[in-house]
Amino acid sequence: MNMIEMEQVSKSYQQYQVLNKITLNLPQGHIMGLLGQNGAGKTTLLKLCLGLLKADRGEIRVMEAPGWDMPPKVKEQVGYVAQKSDTLHWMNVSQLLDYTGAFYQNWDAAKVTALMQRWQLDPKSRVSDLSEGQKQRVAIIQAIGHNPKLLILDEPVASLDPMLRREFIRELIDINLENGTSVLFSTHILSDLERVASDIAILRRGEICFQGSLDELKERYVRLHLSSHSPLPKALQIQGLLHIEHSPNHIRALVENPDRAVVSALEKQLNATAQIEALGLDDIFLELHK
Ligand SMILES: Nc1ncnc2c1ncn2[C@@H]1O[C@H](COP(=O)(O)OP(=O)(O)OP(=O)(O)O)[C@@H](O)[C@H]1O
């Protein structure tokens, strides 16, 4: 079963189209990292999945229920960490967590207490007095205290220091392994994503330009180098060409699924030597956004 299914989903704010015919599936048990530049529409996409925004067109299903009109029994199986949340900050940590727990039948108070201790949160501290990182830890506990089947996280680690980020990621993997929880999270921290995500989705210019595993991503986008003693042309005839940098004797190009026979033909035609370089996630992300 897919925990989230988006089909041909579009969303605009007034005249400005943010998402254009998005099709995205989150299979059960998967952890999917959502990548995109600032303003790419990640928060918008996550809010559409949660029924906090309504799509202009297309269909969204969450655990087979309509995303815009989720019944309570589906809602109670979803956990959400917003990018920024400023509600109820007059409570102390323990009051806020008890208050949140009251909404859920299967709130795991023992787990919540253990997390508070592990993440060094004083139950008596007022939420408004906490640092951003501490607030984020509280928000994460609020989202996982009821052992949700689906967790949606909008940049959950942005304010955490590297050690807590690592702990949080370990927690995420544990939740995923113990409860089979599926996770969709947006992030800018690519190294974290490499550590935890089984799937990656990349939002670019309002569209999902890639959805699949990290290995598939690395196989799909490679850097093609062509070097020659003779001057090389500024343009290349190869399918899947996304980006090209040219100097008289060297071409550096980002190519999607290059046809090896075409690369060999280019070598002959241009009297050049070709080299195909595998890229890391950072490089692929940067190259895709040039
Ligand atoms: N309520 C709104 N009204 C008008 N425009 C909006 C609204 N919410 C978001 N936008 C615009 O839509 C675009 C996408 O915003 P969104 O917050 O979804 O992006 P994002 O990928 O989450 O960005 P970031 O990484 O900076 O958090 C931005 O250009 C933003 O200014």
Automatic annotation (TrEMBL):
Keywords: ATP-binding, Nucleotide-binding, Transport. CDD domains: ABC_DR_subfamily_A (cd03230). GO terms for molecular function: ATP binding; ATP hydrolysis activity. SUPFAM superfamilies: P-loop containing nucleoside triphosphate hydrolases (SSF52540). The keyword Glycoprotein does not apply. This is ABC transporter domain-containing protein. Residues 4-230 form the ABC transporter domain. The keyword Lipoprotein does not apply.
